[in-house]
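name: query_chain
kind: protein
chains: 1
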Amino acid sequence: MKHIYIAFSLLSLLCIPDAFADVRSFTSVDGKSIVAEVVGFEGRAVKLKMGETIYQVPVSKLSEPDKEYLKAWLKDNIPYAFRFSVFEKEGASPLTSGQGGESPSLSGRGNQESTDVSHYIATITNDSGVELEDVELQYRVFIKRTVRMGFSGTNKSTYQAGGLTKITSLPAGRGTSVPTASIVLTDSSSKSTMRTTITYTNGGSTSFTETKKNRDRLEPMGVWFRLYHKGKLVGEYKDLHDDVANSNPTWEESTNWIGRVEFDPNQ
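structure:
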């Protein structure tokens, strides 16, 4: 961390162009001052530019008037910056456990065979330098459906299931783990039987039965997140299996709906 304390003369201050509206004098808690331009934040430090050099100064080291100025600056100049990490977890989401979860309404036809419940957890680190409220995490879960039709071959297709999690707040400089709603997928199988009778010319006959087993298998193939602050798209992250990512998927607005849930990081 570099520390620099420079006192500008009145003449040099008068030479500062009007274009640099955010250039002002900042005073530390021990009374030392610098003249610099605010260019952003990183964690709990403000980035101050002097000439061609940018210094990171902890906000806690600045005077109370400077802190109030930075709060006002941030309202108009939020430097949105986030880090994401995502993993899939088996079992019901902590947001929907005990409520039966929500289903993306994707299931095979016929007799139920098995049901898998899982959810995703996104850890979001807010590097914007300010606590963000009224945040919404929208997501699209990608689901592969594999249909096996006996000797007729296998058909594969990909679906999207949409959902969102309302987040009460994202604290500055801290990672927050946000779960999605539960993703409930039902694999199923069915049988269709066809009897065929063959009559021989000598009056005899024989018959045989053909059975085709239709088995549907559903499995998650990753998730695509979009982060909104007060209705504005401010962050985006994808964690998709290669065979989905390589197909250059688009964000579908009309999807099977997983559900809307609320998340409070303070509880």
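note: The domain at 10-76 is CATH 2.30.30.100 (SH3 type barrels.).
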